[in-house]
Design goal:
Blueprint: E1 15-18, H1 22-33, E2 41-44, H2 48-58, E3 75-78, H3 82-92, E4 100-103, H4 110-117, E5 122-126, E6 136-142, H5 148-159, E7 162-166, H6 172-181, H7 183-200, H8 205-225, H9 230-237, H10 243-253, H11 256-278
Parallel strand pairs: 1-2, 1-3, 3-4, 4-5, 6-7
Antiparallel strand pairs: 5-6
Helix pairs in contact: 3-11, 6-11, 7-8
The chain binds 1,4-dihydronicotinamide adenine dinucleotide and (2S)-3,4-dihydro-2H-pyrrole-2-carboxylic acid (A1CAB).
GO molecular function, one term: pyrroline-5-carboxylate reductase activity
Pfam families: F420_oxidored, P5CR_dimer
Catalytic activity: L-proline + NAD(+) = (S)-1-pyrroline-5-carboxylate + NADH + 2 H(+); L-proline + NADP(+) = (S)-1-pyrroline-5-carboxylate + NADPH + 2 H(+)
Length: about 280
């Protein structure tokens, strides 16, 4: 498992994005922060509003439909929804046959992409939205036909958005999707609940929000820097007969831990089902 060997910006290839929504915009922002010229980025985005947002935020000139401009891309990042990937491949595929393909779509497996594009050099990344603030976490997978140099190009692109790790087995990407891909939503869900409870106990919303966000960030940083497992860190907060014990007991009584695990399994099953349903 190799992590974060960021490649200098001058090593970044010309990159085309198919789909210019949230995830593409996050990656493009990271690339530009790392010194990639906007002129070295092509984006195919059918939505006029999304094109305008890309233009004003990143200074790129998105294309409304597939065309010859895509042909200069050495790497093509597929950032469309799984449901439209096949159509997008049919529309843009002929212009990007020679490129290395990197998909960020949940669930859609490499075999489908190879079939749609007629290209063997296909990799996948599963990023997450903290990429927007360069604190993303991505897992990467590449088919054997992707060379070591091409794997480095994939790393260079995703390192612009935060951290990464490689998985050796494509099926693990469904688990990654359920854990870190969807994970920011779980954090926001708990954050919302903590703020609601704080307000219910008499704090103002800004006070509760600030306390909750700082607690998530601080606990995550403590876990990152600590050599000890989270169970030990949790026990350190939990005085015998104290407040934390009362809260954790209420969580256990309500089956929150088990429900949380079940929720993540549901996300993994959905990732697999998306691959089955829209990868045909
Ligand atoms: N949002 C997230 O947290 C994450 C999303 N992903 C994956 O990233 C992919 C994109 O997700 P988002 O950026 O959130 O969606 P989005 O809806 O913001 O962006 C998708 C864009 O694709 C465009 N599009 C639709 N049809 C197209 C076509 N035929 N050709 C080119 N572009 C087309 C849409 O106009 C839209 O702007 C999805 O497959 C998702 O599974 C992966 C990790 C995290
Ligand atoms: O919800 C989704 O399907 C995408 C993939 C991971 C995060 N968002």
């Amino acid at each position: 498992m190799r992590q974060n060997t960021a490649t200098p910006a001058h090593a970044l290839p010309v990159i085309a994005f198919i789909g210019g929504g949230n995830m593409a915009s996050a990656i493009i922002g990271g690339l530009i922060d790392q010194g990639q010229q906007a002129s070295q980025i092509e984006v195919l985005e059918p939505g006029a509003e999304a094109r305008e947002a890309l233009r004003s935020t990143h200074g790129v000139e998105p294309l409304p439909e597939a065309g010859a401009a895509l042909e200069r891309a050495q790497v093509v990042v597929w950032a469309v929804k799984p449901q439209v990937f096949r159509d997008a491949a049919a529309q843009a595929g002929a212009h990007v046959r020679q490129a290395l393909h990197l998909s960020v779509a949940a669930g859609i497996r490499c075999d489908s992409i190879v079939r749609w594009l007629g290209c063997e050099r296909v990799a996948r990344a599963m990023p997450n939205t903290p990429a927007l603030v360069r604190k993303g976490m991505s897992a990467l997978y590449a088919r054997p036909a992707v060379s070591a140099a091409e794997r480095q190009s994939v790393e260079a692109i995703m390192a612009c958005t935060g951290e990464f790790l490689w998985v050796e087995n494509e099926k693990q990407l469904d688990a990654v999707t359920a854990l870190s891909g969807s994970g920011p939503a779980y954090v926001f869900y708990f954050l919302e609940a903590m703020v609601r409870a704080g307000v219910g106990m008499g704090l103002s919303e800004p006070q509760a929000y600030r306390l909750a966000v700082a607690t998530f960030a601080g606990a995550a940083e403590l876990a990152r820097r600590s050599d000890e497992p989270p169970a030990v860190l949790r026990q350190r907060v939990t005085s015998k007969g104290g407040t934390t014990h009362a809260a954790l007991q209420a969580l256990e009584d309500a089956g929150v831990g088990a429900s949380f695990e079940a929720a993540m399994h549901a996300a993994e099953r959905r990732a697999h089902a998306l691959g089955d349903a829209f990868g045909a």
